Amino acid sequence: MRRHVIPLIAEAAPRPAWPAGMPLDQLQRPLRDLRISVTDRCNFRCSYCMPKEVFGKDYPYLPHGALLSFEEIARLARLFVAQGVRKIRLTGGEPLLRKNVEHLVEKLAALRTPDGRPLDLTLTTNGSLLARKAAGLKAAGLHRVTVSLDGLDDAVFRRMNDVDFPVDDVLRGIDAARAAGLGPIKVNMVVKRGVNEQQILPMARHFRGSGVVLRFIEYMDVGATNGWRMDEVLPSAEVVARLSAELPLVALAPTAPGETAERWGYADAAGRHDPAAGEIGVIGSVTQAFCRDCNRARLSTEGQLYLCLFASRGHDLRSLLRGGATDARIADAIAGIWQGRSDRYSELRGAGAAPAPQARRIEMSYIGG
Ligand code: SAM
Ligand code: SF4
Ligand code: SF4
């Protein structure tokens, strides 16, 4: 298997200048991408995220009053945009379970960057409610969706979601999103060795030429409940090798700095990228650290700001909101928090220097992907 050499940030090449006045973190990374979790609840129990044994009937989800209201989220989002954010992704838990989430989409769609442009506004969903909700989300101003789908085979998919949810309903959701114009649609498949790896090729064949960008995600050691083991990770390099043995691929250049997925295009008979066949992505969060350009912050359902998926603590913005802080005070707090950031967990893990697992407690379902 090909091993990846992980360059440390200190050795990395200089990056383009960032507009004056926008905060940079300790590693000179701008704040570009905000992921907002709108609920910590979900109707699936994917074993890598919300295993049933932990997220059972008695699990203490956040009470309604603890959740940021749509007004609070929209106010924070506006202040984040003033600090450089250009992309907002709604996530969860399952974001489509949050009542009237379309109203939040409407508020976020109305935001503009300092130079008057709309944001890149997207949402990640398990697709279970998408057939019903796609048209309303589009009408509210959502640009596109990413749908999580871990297999095409119904039995494998039901096992992955662990609530016996049928794959056809998710496929109908993807069709509805396409019909509503919520594209380009991305489909994320978490690959667990020995569990759904046999679905890699069928998934690729199904989405090849459909306009949907399929992305394979390495199973990550996020949170403290999924019993993660390295031997269940199928490295992205192996996914690419398996695919290209059947469906030849060519490497494509990244479209944006900080992009998490490595892009591969389907090749034509001459070995060139065939745009009609489309592309796939691999997200090697475990074997290929991409902290160097990480420009993502995460806002939890209750208004805690996390600077890394593997952070053990957040920064409480809700108490500023509810304590009557002015916009200027909150904007200063956001800038200060970002300027103090030095997180690069995946890179440290790659170098064998990650913090002990017991120091990391944040669950993916709480903070969003
Ligand atoms: N419920 C929505 C969904 O599944 O798309 C949004 C939230 S979910 C936490 C966001 C993404 O995180 C999903 O694509 C999911 O597959 C991914 N994810 C969750 N746990 C993961 C893990 N341990 N490793 C890799 N990806 C994970
Ligand atoms: Fe729910 Fe998404 Fe987590 Fe699966 S990955 S349990 S759908 S939040
Ligand atoms: Fe960003 Fe943290 Fe992931 Fe590195 S480990 S890419 S810093 S979220």
Summarize the structure in short.
By secondary structure, this protein is α/β, with parallel strands linked by helices. It contains eleven helices and twelve strands. The chain has a twelve-stranded mixed sheet with strand order 7-8-9-6-5-4-3-2-1-10-11-12.
Descriptive report:
By secondary structure, the protein is an alpha/beta fold. The chain has one domain (8-367): Aldolase class I (TIM Barrel), CATH 3.20.20.70. It contains 11 helices and 12 strands. It has helices at 70-82, 101-109, 130-140, 154-161, 167-180, 200-207, 236-246, 318-322, 327-339, 345-350, 364-367, and strands at 33-37, 87-91, 120-125, 144-148, 186-191, 213-218, 249-251, 262-266, 279-283, 296-299, 304-306, 315-316. The protein has a 12-stranded mixed beta sheet. The chain is globular. Mean pLDDT is 91; it is low at 1-14. The structure holds S-adenosylmethionine and iron/sulfur cluster (2 copies).
Number of H- or I-type helical stretches: 11
CATH architecture: Alpha-Beta Barrel
Summarize model confidence as the mean pLDDT: 91
Largest sheet, if any? 12 strands, mixed
Ligands present: S-adenosylmethionine, iron/sulfur cluster
CATH class: Alpha Beta
| Poorly predicted segments | 1-14
Total of domains: 1
Strand content bin: 5-15%
SSE blueprint and pairings:
Elements: E1 33-37, H1 70-82, E2 87-91, H2 101-109, E3 120-125, H3 130-140, E4 144-148, H4 154-161, H5 167-180, E5 186-191, H6 200-207, E6 213-218, H7 236-246, E7 249-251, E8 262-266, E9 279-283, E10 296-299, E11 304-306, E12 315-316, H8 318-322, H9 327-339, H10 345-350, H11 364-367
Parallel strand pairs: 1-2, 1-10, 2-3, 3-4, 4-5, 5-6, 6-9
Antiparallel strand pairs: 7-8, 8-9, 10-11, 11-12
Helix pairs in contact: 1-2, 1-9, 3-5
